[in-house]
Automatic annotation (TrEMBL):
Its EC number is 1.1.1.100. NADP(+) binds at G9, G10, N11, R12, N75, Y140, A141, A142, S143, K144. CDD domains: BKR_SDR_c (cd05333). This is 3-oxoacyl-[acyl-carrier-protein] reductase. The active site is at Y140 (proton acceptor). It comes from the Bacteria. Catalyzes the NADPH-dependent reduction of beta-ketoacyl-ACP substrates to beta-hydroxyacyl-ACP products, the first reductive step in the elongation cycle of fatty acid biosynthesis. It catalyses: a (3R)-hydroxyacyl-[ACP] + NADP(+) = a 3-oxoacyl-[ACP] + NADPH + H(+). The keyword Protein biosynthesis does not apply. Belongs to the short-chain dehydrogenases/reductases (SDR) family. Homotetramer. Keywords: Fatty acid biosynthesis, Fatty acid metabolism, Lipid biosynthesis, Lipid metabolism, NADP, Oxidoreductase. Gene3D superfamilies: NAD(P)-binding Rossmann-like Domain (3.40.50.720).
Amino acid sequence: MSRSVLVTGGNRGIGLAIAHAFAEAGDKVAITYRSGEPPAGFLAVKCDITDSEQVEQAYKEIEEKHGAVEVLVANAGVTRDQLLLRMSEEDFTSVVETNLTGTFRVVKRASKGMLRARKGRVVLISSVVGLMGSPGQANYAASKAGLVGFARSLARELGSRNITVNVVAPGFVDTDMTRVLTDEQRAGIVGNVPLGRYAQPEEIAASVRFLASEDAAYITGAVIPVDGGMGMGH
Ligand SMILES: NC(=O)c1ccc[n+]([C@@H]2O[C@H](COP(=O)([O-])OP(=O)(O)OC[C@H]3O[C@@H](n4cnc5c(N)ncnc54)[C@H](OP(=O)(O)O)[C@@H]3O)[C@@H](O)[C@H]2O)c1
């Protein structure tokens, strides 16, 4: 198996673990990064997903070097937590712009090649928070819940072309995004996780790789929780 795989935000955290999982399986993996030195071992393309022109340039580079993207993992995302009354319009729109509209941009561009090839795999990284809600994260939860409706619409739209579109909804994962939480906040979160711990990024990556594999050929429009049981019932 040597497919052309793109992982947005694959330079660190969950995205980097996903990039490693595909590379270990023998795929050609491209990752996006915005600044600094990207990790070695991948085709690193500079791309801010809030900028359509950068998205287009990134795809052109990947297509030249690896061929059209056959597996897209839309992982890039941000938080900007604030209680509603203190949340500025910019806090809200910037998170939606990256997490939801940015995902729209990269999926739309990938779908061109997938439609032509009459096959493709798209995996979106949402969050348990998009399903359960979370105080102080109305912007983030709205963007992550939006990904579910987006994915399910595309699953219906693209299914006849053998393109699957699924969502992985991680719980709390040990990355830079959650390292900013205080010990007290972390303890509170872990108290609500039946498995009693955070996930490691590799545990999210394993589900993503499965959804992109032959074994998952008949799964589309699904939301797979990888959350230690935290979001059960949502
Ligand atoms: N950690 C968790 O507990 C958790 C739980 C559920 C869901 N998630 C989701 O999983 C995904 C990865 O999270 P993480 O924990 O690995 O976060 P992270 O360590 O903060 O990494 C975020 C990644 O997204 C990239 N990114 C952010 N804005 C971008 C933009 N405008 N254009 C391109 N790339 C951008 C970052 O690139 P730079 O390096 O350039 O900043 C980085 O690679 C996110 O969608 C997040 O919402 C995380």
